[in-house]
């Protein structure tokens, strides 16, 4: 869990904010867009980029 925490903290602020609202606050993408005053497409792009970054980090740390 520590490595996940540090991986999330290493994300750009915009991606981290969207990810935290989605996964820690349980907000939908539409709710995030409304709360942040952003287009829905921007929120989707930020969440997708954040998840891709986290996947890369996990694969990098995978001993396989």
Account of the 3D structure:
This protein has helices at 2-9, 13-24, 29-36, 40-61. Helix 2 crosses helix 4 (40-61). It has four helices and no strands. The mean pLDDT is 90. The longest helix is centred in the C-terminal third of the chain and has 22 residues, at 40-61. The chain is an all-alpha fold and 64 residues long.
Fraction in helix: over 70%
**What is the SS-derived class?**
mainly alpha
| Biggest pleated-sheet summary | none
Number of DSSP E strands: 0
Report how far apart the termini are. Answer: 19 Å
Would you tell me the overall average pLDDT?
Answer: 90
| Integer-rounded radius of gyration | 12 Å
Structure in a nutshell:
The chain is mainly α and 64 residues long. Helices cover 78% and strands 0% of the residues.
Architecture blueprint of SSEs:
Blueprint: H1 2-9, H2 13-24, H3 29-36, H4 40-61
Task: Provide keyphrases for this structure.
single chain; 64 residues; mainly alpha; 4 helices; 0% strand; elongated
């Amino acid at each position: 869990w520590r490595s996940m925490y540090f991986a999330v903290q290493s994300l750009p602020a915009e991606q981290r904010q969207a990810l935290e609202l989605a996964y820690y606050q349980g907000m939908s993408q539409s709710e995030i867009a409304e709360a942040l005053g952003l287009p829905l497409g921007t929120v989707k792009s930020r969440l997708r980029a954040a998840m891709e970054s986290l996947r890369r980090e996990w694969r990098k740390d995978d001993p396989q």
